[in-house]
Here is the input.
Amino acid sequence: MAAPMRNVDEIRDRVILGEFGVRNVHSTDFPGNYPGYDDTWDLRKFKKNFRLDVFHMDENTLEFDMVGIDAAVANAFRRILLAEVPTMAIEKVFIYNNTSIIQDEILAHRLGLIPIKADPRLFEYRNAGDEEGTEIDTIQLQLKIKCTRNPRASKDSSDPKELYKNHMVYSKDITWVPIGNQADVFADAKIGPVHGDILLAQLRPGQELDIVMHCVKGIGKDHAKFSPVATASYRLLPEITLLQTIEGEKAERLKRCFSPGVIELENIDGRRVAKVVNSRLDTCSREVLRHDDLKSLVKLGRVRDHFIFSVESTGILPPDVLVSEAINVLIAKCQKFLNEIDSTEME
Here is the structure.
């Protein structure tokens, strides 16, 4: 009876990577599916099993583990990060003068995709049809630049950097123009492009740009420019099991089949024996299954409820703030759903 029980546990808890396919890809631990297993959802059991561990965090990237949830919840969280956490982005572009070779529409599109360093939590959504905007829902930016010749350039020079001034227009040339009391409210905030080295246009003497831009609050569901992340993804924790002792030349080949740091060789009584050190680093390439003498010695799988999230911010907000905001959005969605249920029952 022990063997079938182990097999059921594997079906419930592991995704198995085979030579010609992947098994156990669907969640099957719903109530009543397995005799002897109580799979009814329980809050206390969820609190006991759920955990969130931060693995790595820096200024723009965050890697953390979310353990004890279903894939549907993890994917909802990922989609919220991509499309439903609000940011500020350029929405209206008023071009008063553009004598560069770039068409107005192309230039406006390039400007719209520049990440803007501004905390969206301090602003409101602009009302539909409102063209002017106010200090509570709009950030005004300006780009005014003209290319001229450098009178100090040598006669024999052919380098545009020496011949011209302001011939390369970068995002750092965009300046913030406060509206109303914004200069006082955001005195300590450095509102403007996140990165100053984004090339917008190239000019030649006599060409100039005179542009005013309005930034508004929005979400990635409406347009990709509002998405706060460069990428947000997850993968299941890899699990590598050695079914028997592997040593010598086989151990060397086994190590080369996996990503660096996954398999290491340790010396036991003068023998080089393979050992799984850190399966987290594995990319699940299944390279080992190409070796006939190794594929029966290794079992490859993934832990079904252990999600490794990678979040890379565009720089508008720190990644840990984005994660907390995504959680708030998910809570609001759940609350709205519960309110709808209550209102339906009352009717």
